[in-house]
């Protein structure tokens, strides 16, 4: 058992214990809905500049815990595209448009890139800075993007509505696509391992575009590479929990939970939590799945939505979270209400 985990609510749940109230954290809890984050970003510059400024990134990671002491975890402030950056693509963030990777692999070979794993070291430095400032009861969560989702950005060079370029390439040239997936998986194992060595206590794999795949393609490009990452990671770090979050997986969630080797599964807001509790493996910890729009709305709608989630997972280990990232316009007062509703104080 990890150091301090006996008095660490989130780690206890990830290891199969049911707690009441459940531990809580929020995806994208460190970010632009917080005025203190917006002030720091204005001072420091662009997003990537913040990620690679260890002191700034550590400060942003810790900001939500200072404002909301009921939170049970800090999640590293970084981005899933650090892995393609370390694989040799150039990474920029365009204001109002999002990330850009170049050259896009739709028209360029993977072996034309020169890997730059040294680009991961500043992220490990941030992890160490955050860990040094956390109390034992607060978990530090590391993370990476899962191979399918990261590949969609690497191939198109940016985000897309339906991931059509990547889906087409996976059908037209599965051998080439498989090499891209394998390269991402190998780098991801190293990246997650480095985060653990620097002080993270568990990790989450974000597969934000998992919902765009057919069942057969989901098996090949989501379940299989995730299973490979988890197995390799656990060989290096036995006992360290892995949370898998295949957004949009829907009815494919049970297969994902059973076949990938993850310790806990995150579910998005489109999934019926009652169904999920019945369909997922007995005793597997579940994370989620409040609709971020309910949090944005607040009031009675928020209270009802929170209670539905708590009731649905009343009989299994549960980490309360959103079904996706917090919306930037969310009022601080609504988050304070959420903490009171979940924690009862």
Topology:
Blueprint: H1 9-14, H2 35-44, H3 47-51, H4 54-67, E1 73-75, H5 82-86, E2 90-94, E3 98-102, H6 121-131, E4 139-145, H7 147-156, H8 164-172, H9 174-198, E5 202-207, H10 215-236, E6 242-246, H11 253-259, E7 264-266, H12 273-279, E8 286-290, H13 292-297, H14 299-312, E9 318-322, H15 332-343
Parallel strand pairs: 1-4, 4-5, 5-6, 6-7, 7-8, 8-9
Antiparallel strand pairs: 2-3
GO molecular function, one term: uroporphyrinogen decarboxylase activity
Domain Uroporphyrinogen decarboxylase (URO-D): 23-32, 141-157
Subunit structure: Homodimer.
Largest sheet, described in full?
7 strands, parallel
The helix/strand class is alpha/beta
Shape: globular
Strand order in the sheet with the most strands: 1-4-5-6-7-8-9
CATH arch. level architecture of the domain at 45-285 = Alpha-Beta Barrel
Q: Which band does the percent of strand residues land in? A: 5-15%
Helical region count? 15
User: Which regions are unreliable across 5 or more consecutive residues at pLDDT < 50?
Assistant: none
Helices and strands, in order, run as HHHHEHEEHEHHHEHEHEHEHHEH
Mean pLDDT: 95
CATH fold group of the domain at 45-285:
TIM Barrel
The CATH class of the domain at 45-285 = Alpha Beta
Give the end-to-end Cα distance, rounded to a whole number of Å. Answer: 29 Å
Q: Helical content, roughly? A: 40-55%
**Cα gyration radius (Å):** 19 Å
Subunit structure: Homodimer.
Family: Belongs to the uroporphyrinogen decarboxylase family.
Domain Uroporphyrinogen decarboxylase (URO-D): 23-32, 141-157
Main location: cytoplasm
């Amino acid at each position: 058992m990890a150091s301090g985990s006996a008095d660490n609510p989130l780690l206890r749940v990830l290891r199969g214990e049911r707690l009441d109230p459940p531990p809580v954290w929020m995806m994208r809890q460190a970010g632009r809905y917080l005025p203190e984050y917006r002030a720091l970003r204005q001072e420091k510059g662009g997003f990537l500049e913040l990620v690679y400024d260890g002191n700034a990134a550590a400060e942003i990671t810790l900001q939500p815990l200072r404002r909301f002491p009921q939170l049970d975890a800090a999640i590293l402030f970084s981005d899933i595209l650090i892995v393609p950056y370390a694989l040799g693509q150039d990474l920029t963030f365009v204001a109002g448009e999002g990330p850009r990777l170049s050259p896009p692999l739709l028209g360029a070979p993977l072996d034309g890139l020169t890997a730059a794993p040294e680009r991961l070291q500043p992220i490990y430095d941030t992890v160490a800075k955050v860990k040094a400032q956390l109390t034992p009861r607060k978990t530090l969560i590391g993370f990476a993007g899962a191979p399918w989702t990261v590949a969609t950005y690497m191939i198109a060079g940016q985000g897309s509505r339906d991931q059509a370029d990547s889906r087409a390439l996976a059908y037209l040239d599965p051998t080439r696509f498989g090499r891209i997936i394998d390269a991402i998986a190998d780098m991801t194992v190293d990246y997650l391992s480095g985060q653990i060595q620097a002080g993270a206590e568990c990790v989450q794999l974000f597969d934000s575009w998992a919902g765009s795949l057919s069942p057969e393609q989901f098996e090949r490009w989501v379940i299989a590479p995730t299973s490979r990452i988890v197995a390799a990671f656990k060989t290096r770090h036995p006992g360290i929990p892995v949370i898998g979050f295949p957004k949009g997986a829907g009815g494919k969630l049970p297969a994902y939970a059973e076949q990938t080797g993850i310790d806990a599964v995150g579910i998005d807001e489109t999934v019926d939590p009652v169904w999920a509790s019945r369909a997922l493996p007995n005793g597997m910890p579940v994370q989620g799945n409040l609709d971020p729009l309910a949090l944005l709305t607040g009031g009675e709608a928020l209270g009802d939505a929170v209670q539905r989630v708590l009731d649905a997972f009343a009989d299994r280990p549960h980490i309360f979270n959103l079904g996706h990232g917090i919306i930037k316009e969310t009022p601080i007062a609504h988050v304070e209400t959420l903490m009171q509703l979940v924690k009862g104080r």
